[in-house]
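Hello forum,

I keep getting stuck at the same step: I have a sequence, I want structure tokens, and every attempt I make locally crashes halfway through. Rather than fight my setup again tonight, could one of you with a working pipeline run this one for me? It's a single chain of 266 residues.
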Amino acid sequence: MNSKNNDAIIIKSVSHSYQTDTGKLPVLNNLNIRVPYHGFTAVVGPSGCGKSTLTKLISGLLKPDNGEVWLNNEKVIEPKPIVGMAFQNPVLLEWRTVLQNVILPLEIVPNNFSQLEKEKRARNLLSLVGLEGFEDKKPSELSGGMKQRASLCRALVHKPQVLILDEPFGALDAFTREDLWQVMHKLRKEEPFTGVLITHDLRESIFLTDEVIVLSGRPATNQYSVKTSKSGNPQLESLFEPKSIEMLKNLRHQIEIAQGHLGNKS
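Reply #2:
Ran it on my machine without issues. Output:
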């Protein structure tokens, strides 16, 4: 495939199954997704429809049964160092300080940073997300929101070209979650990346990303997509605007369809 276009991520006709005691369990079926360079796409759908499987395929942790995955015009056949990942559980190492946790990828991914440059890079990111002064704290000394901020810094410290977020804010309270949404917009401006967000929060999906893709029930394929068409520096108040409310209504309807409900109530 000689891709001469503006897509950083291409999921082309991907199908995938898992082997179980009772046979194959189809999870994804002929899925097609394209994310442009520096674009940010949310993927939503019913629980168990294969969203997390998709993240593993993009990162090269899994190979699809059929179809192809491409990142920056290269076919994904193994784990890619250009990918950064953050999850619902920050998984910070308690025996390391916050700064040492953030630096960890730079100790694994090949790079030319000196130790001083690694620390400077990590400190700059921590300052960007509001954790300046907490560099020497241990994870147990941080709140849930602070841990997730540190996790985002760790995912970005090696300057990945692609950032995968698998429900990173799902375990946080509503106020902390909304605060981190604003942090994500700041990070995206200061640390450009091509992103994929897996989430169950429809408000989150339209506030953070440029496009929302709804997956069908398992085996999941493309069911619906919508461009969020935001500009400038989005504010939380925009979620109460008529266009956002209508978008949320349509997405909720599509989720009902994906769950097997008709969703035709007037």
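The mean pLDDT is 90. If your local run keeps crashing, start a new thread with the error log.
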